[in-house]
Amino acid sequence: MFISYNQSCEKIAMGLLSYVTDLKNVARLKAEMESYIENADRKLFLWKDEETDNIVALIGIEISEAVVLVRHIAVSPSFRKEGIVHRLLDGLQQQYPASAINGTLETAAFIARWNQKQQARADEETSGSV
After folding, report:
1. Do residues 92 and 70 make contact, with C-beta atoms less than 8 angstroms apart?
2. What residue segments make up the domains of the chain, in order of their start?
């Protein structure tokens, strides 16, 4: 389930962000977390596994006029390879339907695979309706 970050989830969010390679340093991790909390143009969203009721992933974004920039994606190791990143991106698209979703160098590959899957779905729907 795609949910907005709130401060009661801060430790969980920091734990998930610590999986991001450039946030292994505690000082850097805290600074990044503060950036998400203090800046109105930055937001965190979490993924809550409905089966376990645990928060198992997060996505950190920066919002501009027509673009949502995905800055960070982190998934708990025991939940990787389950399609959670695509569900996070689907949730993000529902949250910001008029905005393009782009990635940083670190997240661009995830966005590209998600876009390919979106295109394949659209192609299937188009060919199925002919």
Report:
1. yes
2. 2-124
pLDDT in tens, 67-76: 999 999 999 9
pLDDT in tens, 1-21: 889 998 899 999 999 999 998
Tokens of 56: 């198992």
Beta bridge partners of 43: 61
Burial class, 42, CB count within 10 angstroms (exposed 0-12 / middle 13-18 / buried 19+): middle
> Under a CB-based contact definition with an 8 Å cutoff, are residues 12 and 55 in contact?
yes
Strand 42-48's sheet: what is its strand order?
A: 2-4, 42-48, 55-63, 67-75, 100-103
| Distance of alpha carbon 115 from alpha carbon 126, whole angstroms | 16
Q: Would you state the CATH architecture of domain 2-124?
A: 3-Layer(aba) Sandwich (3.40)
Residue 50 has pLDDT above 70, yes or no: yes
